[in-house]
Amino acid sequence: MPRFLSRRGFLFTGAAVGGTALVAAVGGVGYLATVDMDGPDGFVDGNRAVLNAFVAVHADGRVVIQAPRTEMGQGIHTGLAMLVAEELDIPFDDLISVEHPVEQLAVYTNYAAPLRTRPEDAHGPVMWAAKRALGLLPLMNTAGSSSTMGLWFPMRIAGAAARHMLVTAGAARLGVPVGELTTSDGFVHHGASRRSIPYGALTRDAAAVPPPREPVLRPASAWRLIGRSQPRVDLPGKVRGEPVFGADVVLPNMLHAAIRQAPVFGAGVARLVNAAEVRAQPGVIDVAVIDGRSVAVVAGSWWQAEAAAQRLDVQWTRTEADGVTSAGLAASLHAALDSDDPYIHLAEGDVEAGFRPGAARVVEATYTAPFLAHACMEPMNATVIIHGDGAAEAWCPSQSPLFMRWGVNRGAGLANVDPSSVTCHITMNGGAFGRRSEMDVVVQAAFLAARHRGRPVKLMWSREEDIGRGVFRSHAAARLRAALGPDGLPIAYDARVAAQAMQQSAASRNLPFGNGGSARGDRFTLEGLDKAHYSFPNRRVRSQHVPSHMPIGAWRSNGFSFNTFFAESFVDECAAAAGADPVAYRRALLRDSPRHLAVLNRVAALAGWGMPMPPGRGRGIAIEEAYESVVAQVAEVTVAADGEVTVDRVFCAIDVGIVVNPDAVAAQMEGGILFGVTTALMSAITIEDGAVVESNFHDFPMQRLRNAPEVVVEMVPSDLPPGGAGEPGIVPVAAAIANAIHAATGRRLRSLPLAVTETIGERRTRSVLRENAA
Amino acid sequence: MVSLTVNGSPVDISGKDDKPLLWVLREDLGLLGPKYGCGVAQCGACRVLIDGESTPSCTVALGAIAGASVVTVEGLARADGTLSVVQQAWLDEQVPQCGFCQPGFLIATTALLAHTPRPTDAEIDEAITNICRCGTHPRIRRAIHRAAAAQAQG
Ligand code: FES
Ligand code: FES
């Protein structure tokens, strides 16, 4: 795999050179000017000119764009390429190709997700220090719906800087002032003399041009691409079955590995009963215990490795969690809702006053949500080789090349090998949803590679390992209370959630230093609960961390995935108590939030809110602000007499700020909604004897085409900078469905999933409300 | 030894009668389009055409299909590279997200349209039981109807 940048790309250590494109460029927008963020100076490599860390132009006119975020189906490579192409002034066609960079340059750092702000808005000494630290690592995670937010400026600046270099080279070539030149469709034009030069003919000269100090970005009125749907760059290959996902990596002399991990998290290998027998299976060359915690089988093919692994007889150590059950875990959540030591996230006004006896009508309800697996279609995998010279090289559909690098070092270290360097290749990615921010499979593969030095080892987990032995979204319970005033609107809103903190759990597995801070007050437990856009005069939001033996990790929309279900169901309950229409009620609550109100009104109009529905059918609405976007959805459901529930249609309005690629945003809303329908109706991970019960798609089912809702998406025009799109789509779905079930049946469902899945034939299921289920 | 036709070419494979067709395709024939998603005939990512029938290849032993003609996603386009009507509809509707499930959907739809050129929504529901975790369902339905219409026009 050719490297994009020469050694010269590693300018981080030689950053004193200064004056490079990005430092100069970002100075112009007031961001990062004080942080060493150098990409390479322009240089020529063969018949291409690398103009900066993001853009290379080939002599034949091809443009190669480095997109430093993982393409996992969200279409980010297309969106980032559009931003470059907009400013570079090239057509969006098949002369553009997009790669994930191999080099981990500071300039590729993701600031938006960890700092929770747009990098161009991050000012002050604390932000400077944080950016400096993140850039030193550098953190390039694809997470938190942050990719477009974080690269909205840098990608356009990279395109504008490259265009400037090409135009400057063109001016010299033509012997005319720069100001007399224009560009279009990949050409530099001199109108007066009717001469044009293709970019490809200017590459060598352009590479020598100093990057501009302050590239001028196009005004929105001049955009040709931003806001106009462009076809995804990865789809022509995907309909031919061509892309190389991590699972498809094939290298010369490669070994394959399968794995078995302890059913109870925290348990280790007590005894490997039949190592010799498994070792003697066809094709098997190694049976290895990894870190005392799992057993891998290495063979000449994955089929052989997995077949042999199925014969493994492993005795696992006993742990304190051996007797844990879902019921016990749920009881611990409910107990935590009554603890006298909650973390106080927010306390505005005098909440208790609202609840004094006789002061008002009180609405109170308790809700729950289960543990969840990610179940990405591409099973977990990584391929690692430790070369003869000690350098390591890895291929993985990772969301984090940094964690991947750490994972290789840790895994090799477990085999007492210290790689001299680690080169990470981010492959095509078959779905991630937060799961591939973990480095578990990378550690394991690197350990095996260190045992088989000089040979690549590809480790892939079976689906059963993926669902039952992985990382989970926390379960959660919440109690919400509101005191309604004479107008029926809440005087006081009091929300309390109990769940297992995500950040500390994830950090303990994935960061080589520290433990990720306190679990108390974990923001991923709290997000979505404060309903800040609603005008509640008095508001209190509290949380409780409830530890368990379960490993908790990032999961598409994290706390929003349960808190918005809790809070938006609860607001519906308040509306019902007040005898108000759910949309009218929310309109009143959004009186000080015009952006949200516009989205609410849009989705209500789209769904024909208020039009009568036949018996057994109902509409429900929910709204949330998440990842700097505002999203509202109306679900239409049918509940049959026997309790079968079908989500017929979901309407979605979103204000995602400026939309880069509308069709990709629509796809993310559709995908988030379908993901959310599965979650709301079907998904639960249950625990018995400390272990996950579910193991594959027969007992962790997915919504199939049958009964899949029709989805209608509309984007509300906005001139705010782009917000996130990958996660907001899933956020309101569960509450909208629960509210619709209430409208259809009068029944208020407060526990996820809302239904049980009944099998009605091979690969055919239906969802039946719990109380109707057999 | 088992003889097959795979994407139009004859192949002979010996000593692997018990191996699932999916792994023969992926590991012995280098056809990486069919994917492993579950191994238990649930997800459909591994679907291939076996004598024209859409079949989960993860649970079909090679020895059980001697003499069969197998088509994988790599075999859907014409020899000159032109996309099949189903693939073209998939592109026109911008269906795939991550794409990992899509080879199986493309195969299942190809088989459906061969049997049922203008399927109703109910017939689509009945025939297409694959799983897509990314949630491309709405576009898949649109693309099936688009492909059916394109096929009808010749
Ligand atoms: S891998 Fe064959 S159906 Fe899932
Ligand atoms: S496109 Fe990702 S699983 Fe279907």
Automatic annotation (TrEMBL), chain A:
SUPFAM superfamilies: Molybdenum cofactor-binding domain
Domain of life: Bacteria
Residue intervals of the Aldehyde oxidase/xanthine dehydrogenase a/b hammerhead domain: 240-320
Annotated PROSITE patterns: TAT (PS51318)
InterPro entries from the UniProt entry: Ald_Oxase/Xan_DH_a/b, AldOxase/xan_DH_MoCoBD1, AldOxase/xan_DH_MoCoBD2, AldOxase/xan_DH_Mopterin-bd_sf, N-heterocyclic_Hydroxylase, OxRdtase_Mopterin-bd_su_IorB, TAT_signal
Protein name per UniProt: Xanthine dehydrogenase family protein molybdopterin-binding subunit
From TrEMBL, chain B:
Residues annotated as domain 2Fe-2S ferredoxin-type: 1-76
Keywords tagged on the record: 2Fe-2S, Iron, Iron-sulfur, Metal-binding, Oxidoreductase
A Pfam family annotated for this UniProt entry: Fer2
Listed transmembrane segments: none
Protein name: (2Fe-2S)-binding protein
Biological source species: Plastoroseomonas hellenica
